[in-house]
């Protein structure tokens, strides 16, 4: 039950979104027990973001929420993969990208909780 939501300052084409969605589906496997089969992905493009007090380049804020827990090493690996995806697909330099992680103890789906 992972969810990856991104706010990016650039406009993303539908093709970019589809490509990134597929790559994020592969990337989530960096966290043991997580896969694309339960992944939800959201994109908020053309989002106003200031980083270090400016808008000097394409910028992104990526939120990753998972049901359960993962290790610091898992998160470190995923941050590296996400940085690469956003650089290659959206032209966002890793030094203008933040990634946050949230571990969720209660996750609802299909009328009940896991």
Give the arrangement of secondary structure elements.
Blueprint: E1 3-8, H1 14-27, E2 40-44, E3 60-67, H2 72-90, E4 97-104, E5 108-109, E6 112-113
Helix pairs in contact: 1-2
Summary tags:
114 residues; alpha/beta; Macrophage Migration Inhibitory Factor; four-stranded mixed β-sheet; two-stranded antiparallel sheet; 2 helices; 6 strands; globular
Output mean pLDDT. 97
Low-pLDDT runs: none
The largest β sheet comes out as: 4 strands, mixed
What fraction of the residues are assigned to beta strands by DSSP? Answer: 25-35%
Compute the CA-based radius of gyration.
Answer: 14 Å
Number of structural units classed as domains: 1
Order of helices and strands: EHEEHEEE
- Strand order, biggest sheet? 2-1-3-4
Alpha-carbon distance between the two ends: 9 Å
CATH fold category name: Macrophage Migration Inhibitory Factor
> Strand pairing plus helix content: what structural class?
alpha/beta
Gross morphology? globular
Helix content: 25-40%
Number of helices: 2
Please identify, by name, the CATH architecture.
Answer: 2-Layer Sandwich
**How many strand segments?**
6
CATH superfamily: Macrophage Migration Inhibitory Factor
| CATH uppermost class | Alpha Beta
């Amino acid at each position: 039950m992972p969810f990856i939501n991104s706010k990016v300052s650039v406009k993303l084409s539908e093709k970019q979104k589809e490509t990134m969605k597929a790559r994020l589906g592969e990337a989530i496997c960096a966290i043991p027990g997580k896969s694309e089969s339960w992944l939800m992905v959201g994109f908020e493009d053309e989002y106003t973001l200031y980083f270090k007090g400016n808008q000097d380049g394409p910028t992104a804020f990526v939120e990753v929420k998972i049901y359960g827990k993962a290790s610091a090493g898992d998160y470190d690996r995923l941050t590296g993969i996400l940085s690469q995806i956003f650089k290659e697909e959206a032209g966002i330099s890793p030094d203008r990208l933040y990634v946050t992680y949230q571990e969720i103890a209660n996750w609802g789906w299909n009328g009940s909780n896991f």
